[in-house]
Amino acid sequence: MHARRWLRDSSHHVSNEIKDIVMKYMRKCHYAQNVNDFNNHYNNLISILNEKDAANIIAYLNTNWFHTSPFAKLWSQAYVQRLSDPITSFTNNFIESWHKLLKDKALGNI
Hints:
Layout: H1 3-8, H2 16-30, H3 35-51, H4 55-64, H5 92-107
């Protein structure tokens, strides 16, 4: 589930202050240019949430977005391959072109 949607869900009882903090630091993690910056932003977020006694949010973030999640290394610029390597780029255009090729070649022969 998307973090913003999870935070807005009233059943989690998350204050607007904590929502803003989480989204601010997730943006910082997303745009981090290297792994060290990513980890610094993550650690700052966790420290703030620990001070706010927000263990349920920390558990959610770790399970779905950060270190224990297999998805963790796909959403931050710190981890995603740069455009200099077109074979491993994770851009929409690249993925869509491969999808079109797959449909045209593989499924077109059925």
